[in-house]
Amino acid sequence: MGVSRPDLAAYYGRNDFNAAGFSLSANLLSGTYDIVAYGFSTVAGGFNSRASARITVVNLQPTPKMSIDLPARNSVVQQMFAVAGWAVDLGAPSGPGVAALHVWAYPASGAAPVFVGATGMNVSRPDVGAYFGDSRFNGSGFALQGNLPPGGYTLVVFAWSTATATFNQTASIPITVQ
Q: How much is the pTM?
């Protein structure tokens, strides 16, 4: 309760109905639901009215796809190196479906992972848009500069999906830093 409803106040001619609105937020799985609101009357001292609405929830089905183009799998790189590729979530309603990427390096020695960097979708990739048959994926490229000490690593890229609001995909490659 407490949501402003000046239309109700005007209709009934009562200013005290100005805040007679209500709202509800819910996180539901895909399906059809009957939403029922019961009104509690302070005059009658009980629930004496109800309203219902049937709704259908359609959750987006995430379909993540990603590729690391640079560095190449099993490559030997300098301490300063480029990380580049593309990422999409085909289940997103608009755009490439990926808003950010985080890159981590997991040392072969078993030491703690090293954060390499974060980036957004900042590289034009019309080849990816053409491959998936939709120009909204043209902006699906990413690139950043990494810097790691010498050693063997598994480089892991995590992609943040706008369809699920989570890091819902990863791609990884082994590299050696000189």
A: 0.68
